[in-house]
Automatic annotation (TrEMBL):
It comes from Populus tomentosa (Chinese white poplar). Residues 63-94 form the F-box domain. SUPFAM superfamilies: F-box domain. This is F-box domain-containing protein. Transmembrane segments: none annotated. Residues 145-313 form the F-box associated beta-propeller type domain.
Length: 403
């Protein structure tokens, strides 16, 4: 697992949140590349001789260059501007462009066992989906994994079929039946990396399958490019990898699953090899594996007297990299509740369940926002979601977009 080790040796200290030992969270000054990228205001005002300035309309500039940086819900409002805008927004090229430009985590998909899924928006005005319960799918499902705007779901019925869908466009694909038997212990992760050079949707559903007759894991992968499964030759016999503690997630070519023995199982999609990382000894169910600026890290709530803090662990040894205090004057009466880490999103915000609330805590600004009420009558999984127009690809079914 040399590649896995090299991946994790990229220092998390490059993150401005983790570097600062003085208790502040200021951004690192921006580099000077902007000076070479942007022309002076004088040169920008000069158009080439063969282009007349009056021929360029602001609405054309916005449509061609600005719309792709907006979330899907906001984009859908612009369909009523004109027929030209409607045609442009509905085009596959624009969907591809928006998927590559907009990667801001917009909210959380959550689901209580036995109930329909729901969506928690970080900004209901800007981010949203038309059918958060995913009722456009042909049968009741459980949402199990999320990656860059696409969801991986599984049927609750007897065939346990997998579905890949986009909750914005209501496009979906039923995945062919796998080769191996995927029992209830099977843990999955959706791997989707938008690529500006790859126009078609290319993603993989990676499944860690526990063999029923022995203590071992096999990796079976579905590819959207071939619409088929393949079983990897690597067989995991590590005792620390069994059993897995639920589904995993994808980061930059690797899939990670937390194990019930206090370790992390990492799988290299390119080399199709696995490796084991140790979690900190104090890890517990209130902690969470998550992504921080493209790196794997582990968040662990800690309470000292009446003050909560979030411990951030990273690197190959999952050593303590930073302690982020959750200031009591910001949390108020919520300081008395149970704290559970959910995710680190958008390089600045910790999502936590504190008491009966889901809280977005902005680290640099020491600012707290109540996102939603939290369920306390059982374990609910929260999956970060990007409000994207990401295509599902061929072999899909599609219903109408936003009414």
């Amino acid at each position: 697992m040399a590649d896995l080790e090299e991946y994790h040796m990229e220092e998390i200290d490059d993150n401005p949140i983790l570097l600062d030992d003085e208790g502040t969270h200021d951004m690192i000054p921006s580099c000077s590349y902007k000076s070479s990228f942007y022309k002076s205001s004088e040169s920008c005002a000069q158009f080439p001789g063969h282009i007349k300035q009056e021929d360029i309309k602001i609405e054309d500039v916005v449509r061609q260059y600005a719309l792709c940086f907006l979330p899907a819900k906001s984009i859908c409002r612009f369909k009523t501007v004109s027929k030209e805008w409607l045609k442009w927004i509905d085009s596959p090229f624009f969907s591809h462009k928006q998927t590559n430009h907009f990667k801001h985590v917009s909210g959380l998909f959550c689901q209580f066992p036995g109930e329909s899924p729901s969506f928690i928006s970080f900004n209901p005005v800007a981010y949203g989906v038309s059918s958060p319960s995913l009722c456009f799918l042909p049968e009741p499902i459980d949402v199990r994994t999320s990656c860059n705007g696409l969801l991986g779901c599984q049927s609750r019925l007897g065939d346990d079929a997998y579905y890949i869908c986009n909750p914005v466009t209501k496009e979906w694909r039923v995945v062919p039946k796998p080769t191996l038997y995927h029992g209830p212990e099977t843990a999955i992760a959706l791997a989707f990396e938008p690529d500006v050079l790859k126009f078609g949707a290319q993603y993989e559903l990676v499944c860690a399958v526990t063999l029923p007759d022995r203590a071992a894991l096999l990796f079976e992968i579905y590819s959207s490019r071939t619409n088929s499964w393949r079983v990897c030759t690597a067989m995991c016999l590590e005792l620390d990898a069994l059993p897995l503690n639920g589904d995993g997630f994808y980061i930059r070519g690797f899939v990670f699953w937390e194990t019930q023995s206090g370790a992390v199982l990492g799988f290299d999609l390119k080399e199709e090899e696995y490796g084991i990382l140790r979690l900190p000894p104090s890890s517990n169910p209130t902690g969470a594996l998550t992504e921080l600026r493209g790196e794997l890290c582990y968040l662990l709530p800690h309470k000292d007297d009446d003050a909560w803090s979030i411990e951030v662990y990273g690197n190959m040894d999952m050593s303590l990299r930073r302690v982020i205090p959750l200031h009591s004057e910001v949390l108020g009466h919520l300081v008395d509740g149970q704290c559970r880490a959910l995710a680190f999103v958008n390089d600045d915000t910790i999502i936590i369940a504190l008491g009966m609330k889901v809280i977005a805590y902005h680290v640099r600004a020491h600012k707290m926002e109540r996102v939603s009420d939290a369920r306390t009558d059982g374990f609910v999984r929260y999956l970060p979601y990007v409000n994207s127009l990401a295509p599902v690809g061929p072999f899909m079914r599609k219903t109408a977009l936003y009414p």
